[in-house]
Amino acid sequence: xxxxxxxxxxxxxxxxxxxxxxxxxxxxxxxxxxxxxxxxxxxxxxxxxxxxxxxxxxxxxxxxxxxxxxxxxxxxxxxxxxxxxxxxxxxxxxxxxxxxxxxxxxxxxxxxxxxxxxxxxxxxxxxxxxxxxxxxxxxxxxxxxxxxxxxxxxxxxxxxxxxxxxxxxxxxxxxxxxxxxxxxxxxxxxxxxxxxx
Length: 197
What we know:
It contains four helices and seven strands; from the N terminus they run αβββαββαββα.
């Protein structure tokens, strides 16, 4: 057998081995990702030492929507709702925001105010709701809304009651995290000058 054939056979075997090793690594990465997602769901919402305290009034806010108009906190005032902070450059946000927008639009979650960062026209299309009564999406100027809510990281969600007070808040990287915060806040209403109950 000529040396060229032997070299070609050895190179072919090495390429087949590399291909099989790469396929195995891809399968292992997919399995690892599934395990990490399962752990995130099992761990529940991330409780951070950041953000407004339970019982705090919701700060007034305004956002610039993707079409250039202004949306304000008065849009959702007097209704139980969510305020979700997200950043288009955040991979966890890419995972949770579209699911929360769909759930809020379908009525499975309370109405939603999505506070983004950056240019209004850069808001991802799947972050925008079709129902402006149930989903308000826009971006803040500078960090004015984030600062008012005490938010340092995203995604971060607040559950606001009918009296416009914070009844739950925390980091949320899955739809399950948001649902857990909403479930945990069910039946809680902050009474001005009193305690929740």
